[in-house]
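Person: I keep going back and forth on a fold encoding question. Show me how you would write down a chain together with its backbone fold. Please set it down just below, with no commentary around it:
Helper:
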Amino acid sequence: MKEVTMTIKLPLFEPTKLKQEMYQTMRNEFSRLLNRALDIKRTNPKIAVTDIDKLLKQDSILPTTTQQEARKLALSRYDDWKKNQKTKSFPRFKEKQTILFNNQNWHFRYDNGYLKLGIPTIEGRLTLEKYVPVRTNEYTSFWVHFLLNGEMDKTNKYYDSSFEQIIDIKKGNGQLYEKKKRWYFAFSITLTVKEKENTDETEKSVGVDRGLRMIAVAGCGQTGEYKIFNGRYLGHIRRKYHRLRKQLQKAKNMKALKWLENKEQRIIDYWNHVISKKIIRFAEQIGAKTIKLEDLSGIRKMKRHWKQSNRNIHSWAFYDLEIKIQYKAKLKGLKVEYVDPYKTSQECFQCGKVKKTNRRGPLYTCSCGYKKQADVNASFVISTRPSIAG
């Protein structure tokens, strides 16, 4: 058995002005309690948790459970600072802090066909009238339905037969936050997945090479099969939206600028979903058990070595694609591992020679006679490299 954790984000459905003002008040108070708890702990490092809770309760309007979440977060930051105080300054929380809720203190219910959320607030005891509606789409509806009913809606387009490997679903903690003048509730779910038995003596792996011209190339060095995902369309989108942003910034049209940014983000998010799904399907089709990714945690630090403009590197969501590959692979019973990205584009898959001039634009040519599309060669190299800790 293994566990997969996912995060679901739901926008609140047109909260009233009074509700929004209440959430803002709660958010400000939550931030104040975080810093208050830090100061208490710093002044008296040996103070008991129960005594901190009593001090926070004296002058706070937040529900007790929310006060306790503030204390937990503050103490975790304090402990982290204590271990690294030689290199870290004492933590302080900014305003507009996300409000946290324990998994036992938030609830969903359906009311006249609408999904509603119940959370502890400063309005007092939670009653059915205080539940607020949230927006769902077909994707989020699938997981919420599964969470509430313990059954999958097999008519939903996001249902997949491989989900039958999921034997349990549990809700995790939730959080309420504001982003670009809209309020959201996000929560985690943990899925317990039955692992597939490995009957193959030689386990196949798919290597995924991510880039700018080619969004991703998935290849298996053992079989020689590969799949290319061209980045031409998204490159056009990035250039188009960059020009539009410059025009809107010049015109100081901030409302249109925010709308544009949201639209571009939705387009990229959609294509990351599509690409990650096809990569997983490709791995299944060739019988691979593992997907290998380059460890690109330092990609932003490497931008000075790239010829493309900074906006291309920062606008392409490498990490977002990685996250989608991770959780979709786990749901299918596939492993995700990481490899050293050092010179994967310069190494010859056939003979192992590493030479910078072997890669000339889209073609990789080695003195050993091996020729291949450069990104395909890199994906083959990634698929056969030894894994490192991810």
Observations:
- The two ends are 20 Å apart (CA to CA).
